[in-house]
Amino acid sequence: MKVRSRLAWGVAGLMALPFGTAQAEQAPAIDLAKSVARADAVAKQMSGDEKTVLTHGIMPLPFVPGTVLPEGSVPGAGFIPGIPRLGIPALTETDASLGVSWVGGLRKDGATALPSGLAQAATWSPDVLYHGGAMIGSEARAKGFNVLLAGGVNLMRDPRNGRTFEYLAEDPLLSGELVAAAIRGVQSNGIISTIKHFALNGQETGRKYVDVKIAEGAARESDLLAFQIGIEKGQPGSVMCAYNRVHGEQACASDWLLNKVLKQSWGYKGFVMSDWGAVPGVEAALGGLDQQSGEQLDKAVFFGDVLKAKAASDPAYAARIHDMNRRVLTAIYAAGLDRNPTKPGGKIDFAANAQVAEETAKQGIVLLKNNGVLPLAKTAKSIAVIGGYADSGVVAGSGSSLVHDEKGPAATRSLGGDSPFSALMQQSYHRSAPLAAIKAAAPAAAVTFRDGRYIADAVEKAKQAEVAIVFATEWRTEGLDQPDLSLPDGQDALIAAIAAANPNTIVVLETGGPVAMPWLDKVAGVVEAWYAGARGGPAIASVLFGDTNPGGRLPVTFPASLGQLPRPKLDGADWVEPNFSGDAEPGKDQLHSDYDIEGSDVGYRWFARKGQKALFPFGYGLSYTSFSASELKVSGLNASFTITNTGKIKGDDVGQLYLVNRAGEAKQRLVGFKRITLEPGAKQKVTVTIDPRLLADWKDGGWVMPAGEYGFALGKNAEDLGAVVKVKMSRKIWKD
Ligand code: GLC
């Protein structure tokens, strides 16, 4: 197998584009080799003290005790001083994948909140992710930040993970392609994007010490492949290592993850920054860590004088320091931070940016059930809207990724408690009320609202209306996992009562991940709107009234029960006390999670292996029109097929091509996808170039595709597959 490689951050690898993934607008090409050479030369000019300037930094937020905001810092996630003598700019860092984080309103400014990562991934459109990344990157630049801590791409191994909302999907191809597009978008603003959290950061319970066990091959074929594709095609200037342990080592000190996989096997030339409070000691430098972030949150500043002293006596550390500086400088020069410095006070077109958020939300909404009640008629006479703070806004996930506009949240709901992070632990709602948007869409309708706290009162209103729309929210946050997949606060009972009162009951879910739906067969329609972001209200109304024909598809499996999961009980859930900081109580940091149970068969792959039927499968989504897929042809790594709009209105479909068996064994893997828009009656031929890593196993240090017959099928989703087309493949082996 001839391996064409591209020096994209040094990541060599087959650059075959998976089927139909239209390359989003290209960010400026990065001349990496030139940046590396310049970085090496400048790093050599550094004096003793200068050598540990770029290797550590603070979290410039006054609520971290003892923090003084340095000159040139912007209140946000991170600040790394520059070296003016050498023309090296400071790094001003902000979170995250959904926009410029709000940090409690500290800067008295606001930003545009994209919908959640899941909502973005449900578009299955790299172009949508590119434009979202370009928008939030432009706001970061305008606010004076030159590093956006975006690119959250951890696969959903457990649907209860509190940060599922922030991430993208359960599949490495979908996740890798989409995160790459988002990173290209962010970096098109001449700033650095991260990709995070490297790697296998699959739960928030005990996040700083949960120790993941997984065979190298399984990791390479799943979580690591998502990062590899994301790095290859996104070229992020920095990789953020994760809090958790892998094979007993902290990820931020893991020689296997950072040196062997990322820097040697993939040839990555950028720098590894730690997560905040994720550095175990100075030895992490030898493990491959290049920069200690948010150093106040660690037990000590390891990468300053301690590192300098080590370098003075140990050549391994001295060599590392040079490489650390060279890597940070490579990212700075590749992004052009020195040539095109950022400074606060830039202009932001919030109206235009809101349109990007709204379009993303519209394209990510997934229609899960429709007995014909949708789309609603704009001539509807009476509509009862119930619950979900729909009169105020749409729910947002909490933690470092939280974004709000300058007016702040439309509503908040504190969880109380006395932990240091209690102030952060509150539900909040973006200022975009679905109720107002529904009223605007159906001006002649009598629209009532009840918040749903009193079921009988809400039922009364539902009885009086033609249609009842129940908004159900499932808030999630960084630092905590969900105890199960039920809707909280008695919402399941509310929905069941409303459905019993009105046969035209529609449920709009605003969830941070998969949820159970015990009332599913009692309601007429279900729409998954996720965390719909700054313009969630109008986006939801647009789908409800048919101005938008929903084209979203699930990027994650909705299980029918927790018993279907590789780990029905979340590891640590029965003894780790939920706490946002993630720190262990003394002597209680031995938490283990065995990912070898499923290995690389994450999500739909696991369901296929176990022959399980999901509540709603990966790739599922309905439309107000209908589509057919036909004429699948596969020859080697190239495939093509045709999608036809067989209905009466324009709509989007997502072509999904799956490997379904290989050399005589069942094996399901997504090998290509493409979202297309078709007028009624129109058809389009789409082509696929399959990335061979998706057909291979990782064995003995390389990829192995066994000889034999490979079966491929088109899918409406991971469970609804068409005829199998068989292709003979010869054995192929190659290195990364
Ligand atoms: C957080 C998150 C990380 C974020 C960082 C800075 O704990 O894990 O995603 O970028 O700290 O806020």
From TrEMBL:
Domain Fibronectin type III-like: 653-718
Keywords: Glycosidase, Hydrolase, Signal
GO biological process, one term: carbohydrate metabolic process
E.C. designation(s): 3.2.1.21
Record keyword Nucleotidyltransferase present: no
Molecular function GO terms recorded: beta-glucosidase activity
Pfam families given in the database record: Fn3-like, Glyco_hydro_3, Glyco_hydro_3_C
Protein's UniProt keywords contain Hydrolase: yes
Secretion signal span: 1-24
PANTHER family: BETA-GLUCOSIDASE
Family stated for the protein in its record: Belongs to the glycosyl hydrolase 3 family.
Protein name, as recorded: Beta-glucosidase
Lineage: Bacteria, Pseudomonadati, Pseudomonadota, Alphaproteobacteria, Sphingomonadales
